[in-house]
Amino acid sequence: MNSRIIIINIIRWFLLLFVQIFLLKNMGFYDLSTPFIYVLFLLLLPFGMPNILLYLLAFGTGLTMDAFYDTMGVHATACVVLAFVRISFISISLNKDAIDDPEPSLSYMGFQWFSLYAFLCVLTHHLVLFFLETFRLTEIGYTLMRCGLSCIFTLLIILLVEFIFYKRTSR
Amino acid sequence: MRNLWIFISRYNAFFLFIIFFTIGVFLTVKNNAYQRSATLNSTNEIVGTAYERLNVFKRYMNLGMVNDSLAAENAKLKTQLLRVTTVDSAKNVTVIDTVTNQQYTYLPAKVVKNSVTLRNNVMTVNKGTVDGIETGMAVISPQKGVVGFIRDVSAHLATIQSLLHKDTKISVVIKKNNALGSLVWGDNNFDIRKAFIKEVPNHIKMNVGDTVVTSGLAKFPAGILVGKLSKTNVATNDNFLSAELNLFNDFSTLQYVYIVKDKLAKEQQTLENPVKPNE
Questions:
Q1: A and B: number of Cβ contacts within 8 A
Q2: Cα–Cα distance between B15 and A61 in angstroms, integer?
Q3: d(CA A44, CA A159)
């Protein structure tokens, strides 16, 4: 069971980063909306993980993205922020001892919880990402617009993917 | 200590977040050219402003030195300008001879003593024989106008017999029609802003407002602005016309002057007054 989760996550990591780097990197609407689907990997990591492992995975994933995007540290920082939001949100919204689901996916947690969870995580990730990328406050309007539109795009794709791989039997 | 460990382990998510976030930002700033330049720029801005405020006093103290250097630079530029404007087109232009093309050079000097209230006014400047000053050199003002001639020279100082002196006569022309005259001061006029142009031939028509410039016949370079005519046909008891003019130059506020070195002065002098061996 445990090794199966690990293998699934590894496959998911490769798949999402492959899609991100070779497909979505070339996508974008008027330089305003660019989806970052790879955060889904961090969203779907299993519940029982130690925080340090979560942070390391987030940082490593971010660094891998940075290597392909030539933006050293930007994605890594954004992913670390996302991990922090994920931990905080889960600890606030769920009772830690009563969690019997393996991972926070749409099929286990339901649409309402998952959409809010994904929205908060993606929003903070994108905020940090775009602000670190522009690194100035003078273009704040443009940055916020990019951030918001990209956030919508990413969320749409994440929900799409989650509905495609929806497991009806598990709930 | 144990409580501290418990505290840290309980909120490990936050502390780990701080650590990783710091590493991430550090990497971002260190490895990305733009972010690095942005942080350094803002730092420099703050530091620069602070230094700027601190240096106000220092700059004020240095004003004198800055003035000197600016005057020197001005003299250099004006010398260059002269070289451009005094190129003799009648000469063979294929040979560029800067030694003779440039007849005049300017040397800046600071006025250390000035007087305007006497009948015969003399001022002192801080340049002397060490700087190549000789008696009889022309002196002009940096802005506009003539000042006078060098009278006595010591090693580091020189006195200028200014225009406001009974013996000073400067050859000038009315710019409009090149009518020659001589510029004098005095003769019942002790206003330092006014002078007279005398010995203008009778047939010349002069109007109020005509510009008067140096003729270039004497020691001054040609075309240096002197003043504007303010009153024409001043009655005199000789057969020439006279006119009153307002000087461009304000003698009372002179701080810097340019001493004009004429390369051909000696040559001209020996040519015009040949030394007679029998005398």
A1: 68
A2: 20
A3: 12
Q: Which of B13, B26, B34 is closest, CB to CB, to A51?
A: B13
Rounded to two decimals, the ipTM of the complex is 0.79
- Under DSSP, the state recorded for B253 is G
**Using CA atoms, how far apart are residues B200 and B193, in angstroms rounded to an integer?**
21
Q: Which residues contact B137 (CB under 8 A, 6 or more apart)?
A: B149, B150, B219, B259, B260, B261, B262, B265
Q: What are B111's strand-pairing partners?
A: B125
Six-digit token string for B63: 């004003």
The continuous run of DSSP H or E covering B54 comes out as: helix B33-61
Distance of alpha carbon B102 from alpha carbon B88, whole angstroms: 10
Q: What is the mean pLDDT of chain B?
A: 79
* Secondary structure string (H, E, C) spanning B58-125: HHHHCHHHHHHHHHHHHHHHHHHHHHHHCCCCCCCCCCCCHHHHCCEEEEEEEEEECCCCCCCCEEEE
Q: Which amino acid would we find at residue B34?
A: Y
Residue B97 has pLDDT above 60, yes or no: no
Binning pLDDT at 50, 70 and 90, where does residue B89 land? Answer: very low
**CA A87 to CA B71: how far, in whole Å?**
71
B27 neighbourhood in chain A, CB within 8 Å: 66, 72-73, 76-77
* Helix (H), strand (E) at residue B156: none
SS3 B182: strand
Q: How many helices (H) and strands (E) does chain A have?
A: 7, 0
Number of C-beta neighbours around residue B33 at 10 A: 7
Q: What does the alpha-carbon distance between residue A112 and residue A169 come to, in Å, rounded to a whole number? A: 18
Strand pairing category for B179-184 and B225-232:
unpaired
| Strand (E) or helix (H) holding B198 | strand B194-200
Q: Which helix (DSSP H) or strand (DSSP E) does residue A148 occupy?
A: helix A140-164
Mean pLDDT by groups of 10 residues along chain A of 171 residues? 84 89 76 84 87 90 86 88 90 78 81 90 91 79 87 91 76 45
Q: If interface means Cβ-Cβ distance under 8 Å, which residues of chain A face chain B? A: 51-52, 55, 58-59, 62, 66, 71-74, 76-78, 80-81, 83-84, 87-88, 91, 132, 135-136
Q: How confident is the model at residue B90 (pLDDT cuts 50, 70, 90)?
A: very low
Answer yes or no: do A87 and B32 touch at CB < 8 A: no
Is the pTM value of this prediction over 0.95?
no
Map tokens 């840290």 to a residue.
B8
